[in-house]
Specification:
The chain has helices spanning 12-42, 49-92. It is mostly helical. The chain has one domain. The protein is rod-shaped. The relative contact order is 0.16.
């Protein structure tokens, strides 16, 4: 198993993990976009500049979560592969 292998669906557990992370990734993407849109609209109102800045900050954090989620998925793939290898070794030994 290579890190960042796009054909990593070796088992149902791999596929389930991939689907779960993709759903979370999409939610984070929409959240970030929504926060940036809301912050941009609020920025036109002088009284709403502080909430607008908070929207931009939280939206930026959401964008930082995206590569983090992908890294977590890949590390979990490696962990799943080690568990599979241990199970195979136990069966053959």
């Amino acid at each position: 198993m290579r890190l960042f292998d796009s054909k990593a669906h070796k088992s149902p557990a791999h596929a389930r993990l991939y689907a779960t992370i993709e759903v979370i990734y999409t939610i984070v993407d929409f959240t970030a976009a929504g926060l940036f849109i809301a912050g941009s609209i609020m920025f036109f109102l002088p009284s709403a500049k502080t909430p607008a800045l908070w929207c931009f900050l939280v939206g930026s954090i959401c964008f930082a979560l995206k590569p983090t989620l992908r890294l977590i998925r890949q590390l979990r793939y490696v962990q799943l592969d080690k568990i599979d290898a241990l199970a195979k070794a136990e069966q053959s030994g």
